[in-house]
Amino acid sequence: QVHLLESGGGLVQPGGSLRLSCAASGGRLSIMNVGWYRQVPGKQRELVAHITSITSGAGTEYGDSVKGRFTISRDNAENTVYLQMNSLKPEDTAVYYCNARLGNEYVFWGPGTPVTVSS
Questions:
Q1: Model confidence at 57: pLDDT above 90
Q2: Mean of pLDDT values over 94-107
Q3: Quick one: which of 4, 11, 68, 110 has the fewest CB in 10 Å?
């Protein structure tokens, strides 16, 4: 069983930056496709950024609302995936979740970390 734990969320002013971390235990994130999602109350969970496994080339993709501001990356030695968030806006306020998939059969979620962008 893979356990994911997000960290790095908090309160930040508009225009500021945060770096979220998704640390894994019980499995290697490097062989999994990993995504960052976010959710606000009353809305569906939204894909923010995604990175494929290293065997698939570690390609990245981003939601339209965060392109050019957010960057997803891996540290395979630390078994961690990061989400660097710059130029944060109030509409980025949400709970951010890490998701890891191994094929279609194994899907893991972390408990989430809250991000609040407010002055």
A1: no
A2: 94
A3: 68
